[in-house]
Amino acid sequence: MATRSRKGKKCTVIGGCGFLGRYIVERLLEEGYTVSVFDIAKTFEDDRVKFFVGDLCQEKDLAPAISDVQTVFHCASPPPSSDDRDLFYRVNFVGTKNIISACKKAGVQKLVLTSSASVVYEGTDIKNGTEDLPYAKKPMDYYTETKVLQEKEVLAANSPEENFFTVAIRPHGIFGPRDRQLVPILVDTARAGKTKFMIGNGENLVDFTYVVNVAHGHLLAAEHLHKDSPVCGKAFHITNDEPIPFWTFMSRILEGLNYPSPKMGLPYLLIYYLAAFLQLLCLLLKPIKEIKPTFTPMRVALAGTYHYYSCQRAKQLMGYKPVVPLDEGIKLTVKGYAHLQNNN
Ligand SMILES: NC(=O)C1=CN([C@@H]2O[C@H](COP(=O)(O)OP(=O)(O)OC[C@H]3O[C@@H](n4cnc5c(N)ncnc54)[C@H](O)[C@@H]3O)[C@@H](O)[C@H]2O)C=CC1
Ligand SMILES: CC(C)CCC[C@@H](C)[C@H]1CC[C@H]2C3=C(CC[C@]12C)[C@@]1(C)CCC(=O)C[C@@H]1CC3
User: Fold this and answer.
1) Are 309 and 172 in contact (CB under 8 A)?
2) What distance lies between CA 226 and its chain's CA centroid?
């Protein structure tokens, strides 16, 4: 009993130096957990945290970081904006298999994976999508392709007979202070004068999820992960449960940072096929010059289609509900990015 209770509150966050990972660490510390972080890069100091710097693609690097812990949170991934197919495959697929193997060898009981709602997204409308939707047969990018492989691997690894329980959390459009993808890229796009128009008619509803709600969902999943629990081996959408028109959300952030927001819409299909053509052109020109287009087909699709998800399963099986409402999350985010304010 002593051993189990001692291990009970000990956990490791793989990718814990990232945007979401650090919020999970902060939430775990608030809840009295003993927290270790494993990451390829250490980006913050905290005397309460034990840091292990290593590469999850090397299983031997993992062992010291997960020794004697009950729960592992895996939220490491290359940035979705990368176009390095091999990197995505090595980190998200082979690396995740390493984590499963290392967890089983170390006697870790619980593995909570940060997956993505995008694993069912193929660029067409999804309205109130449930977790029963099939995995994307034609993922729109390498990132999504490897997130599908990763989630399948983790859920299949759930093994009550080995006292090893797994769960996948599928957030969507995570935002908040310290985010590295959404707001910084949006501001760069605005500064380049590329947000004068919106893509589509501006009515498409999308889920944006404040980061503290995502961290909360991860801890709830870990707390409900035990023998005979209906949570084991399942995926759960975690959202703010407040889908919002994509361009309304973007305009709230832009105007909050004193940038002009788009007023007119451009035909979605025109921009989508233009983005697809540009992507092909960049691929052909890559041997001569590396060009990274802002408007990739995936981003255009995300900007111009409906994609919001039901979190009913998380509500029913884990008692999930968002702790920070969308409007408050937007205000906190704008405040957290004052340094990116438009001063012109
Ligand atoms: N940002 C978003 O809107 C969404 C993110 N997700 C998922 O949430 C998770 C966290 O995403 P973010 O916090 O936005 O990403 P992030 O890029 O801020 O954090 C990822 C962390 O993983 C670490 N990492 C990458 N490769 C590694 C390796 N080989 N070994 C050890 N550590 C490594 C990085 O150093 C970084 O600290 C990812 O799994 C992502 O797929 C899911 C849905 C939406
Ligand atoms: C002006 C816009 C077309 C571009 C600025 C905003 C975009 C950078 C972001 C809007 C939706 C975001 C999003 C993700 C990354 C950043 C955006 C494309 C993800 C792809 C991140 C990883 C995931 O798992 C899914 C996310 C969907 C939404």
Assistant:
1) yes
2) 24
SS3 for 66?
Answer: helix
| Distance in Å, CA 17 to ligand 1 centroid | 9
Per-domain residue ranges for the chain?
Answer: 10-179+208-241+308-324
Short-list 171, 199, 185, 182, CA closest to 113 = 171
Please say if 259 is a catalytic residue.
no
Q: Yes or no: say if 303 and 265 are a contact pair by the CB < 8 Å rule.
A: no
Instruction: List Cβ neighbours of 15 (8 Å cut-off, separation of 6 or more).
Output: 21, 38, 39, 74, 75, 76, 77, 114
Distance 198 CA to ligand 2 centre (A): 15
CA nearest ligand 2 atom 26, residue: 173
Which of helix, strand or coil describes residue 50? strand
Q: Say which of 142, 143, 308, 337 is annotated catalytic.
A: 143
Q: What is the pTM of this model?
A: 0.96
Beta-carbon count within 10 A of 228 CB = 7
Residues lining ligand 2, judged by CB closer than 6 Å? 80, 116, 118, 172-173, 181-182, 185-186, 189, 195, 299, 302-303
Does this complex have an ipTM over 0.90? yes
Atom of ligand 2 nearest to the CA of 147: 24
Nearest CA to ligand 1 atom 37: 18
Q: Is 50 exceeded by the pLDDT of residue 4? A: no
* Minimal-distance CA residue to ligand 2 atom 17: 182
Rounded Cα gap, residues 170 and 150, in angstroms = 12
User: Could you read off the pLDDT of 131-149 as tens digits, one per residue?
Assistant: 999 999 999 999 999 999 9
Q: What is the pLDDT of residues 66-122, one digit of tens each?
A: 999 999 999 999 999 888 999 999 999 999 999 999 999 999 999 999 999 999 999
Asked if 18 contacts 171 with a C-beta cutoff of 8 angstroms, the reply is no
Q: What is the pLDDT of residue 29?
A: 97
Nearest to 7 by CA among 25, 33, 39, 43: 33
Q: Does domain 10-179+208-241+308-324 have CATH number 3.40.50.720?
A: yes
Q: How far apart are CA 234 and CA 280, in angstroms?
A: 37
